[in-house]
Design a protein that fits this description.
With 224 residues, the protein is of the alpha/beta class. It has one domain: Rossmann fold. 26% of the residues lie in helices and 24% in strands. The strands form two sheets. It has a seven-stranded mixed β-sheet with strand order 5-4-3-6-7-8-9.
């Protein structure tokens, strides 16, 4: 794994519930990528949720953050990460980094993560938290994630943690040929379909990976 030394094999009192969560991902949800499961069993999810909700951190449900945002349920984090098929050499763009939990998982599995968050207050807390945990392969930006991060493109993988009405063209443009993007897409803001986009020489192909529900993707190429 990449990312952090201090975040591995920690004794924080949550080893048992974190292990149970990981086994549920393997046995119930059939997450098969051992690297993804290892990352999920490593990142201290309880540190990425409000203090009052730490006892619920390893249950399989989304939890609320501030200003109407959420931290995705563990299954969705693991599923989206697995669909990227990361080997450890990739440069990954993450849109909607939120609390930083998904960012931390990606940082353990990729060479470099470029994280964009729209809301300054959430981004500042996540950035400090991840640095305190020892992650050193993450670059941060506050802004419109639907525009991507052109200067660092092309990216080997892109993960979008908010649901948009369509696939943002700037993100397709910034994806390397052969690269994968996982994004929730839906005609309404309440529910979406998880879509995997694979960039080809002539354009891109898409796969429907099942229903999901995310907060709206706000921006020039998302919801206004």
């Amino acid at each position: 794994m990449n990312g952090t030394a201090s975040g591995r094999n920690i004794s924080d009192g949550y080893e048992i519930p974190r292990g149970r969560m990981t086994e549920q991902l393997r046995n119930t949800y059939k997450i098969a990528d051992d690297r993804v499961l290892g990352a999920m069993n490593t990142v201290p999810r309880h540190l990425f949720v409000p203090n009052a909700l730490q006892s619920q951190a390893y249950k399989d449900n989304a939890l609320p953050l501030s200003v109407g945002q959420t931290i995705s349920q563990p299954f969705i984090v693991a599923r989206m990460t697995e669909l990227l098929e990361l080997s450890g050499r990739e440069r990954v763009l993450e849109i909607g980094s939120g609390s930083g939990y998904q960012t931390a998982v990606l940082a353990l599995l990729a060479r470099k993560v470029y994280a964009i968050e729209r809301i300054q207050s959430i981004a500042s807390v996540a950035k400090e938290r991840l640095r305190n945990l020892g992650y050193r392969n993450i670059s941060y930006r506050v802004g419109d994630g639907t525009l991507g991060w052109q200067i660092y493109s092309p990216f080997d993988a892109i993960l979008v943690a908010a649901g948009g009405p369509e696939i943002p063209q700037p993100l397709v443009d910034q994806l390397a040929v052969g690269g994968r993007m996982v994004i929730p897409i839906g005609e309404g803001q309440k529910s979406q379909v998880l879509v995997r986009v694979t960039k080809t020489e002539k354009g891109y192909s898409t796969e429907n990976c099942g229903p999901c529900a995310f907060v709206p993707l706000i921006g020039e190429h998302g919801w206004k």
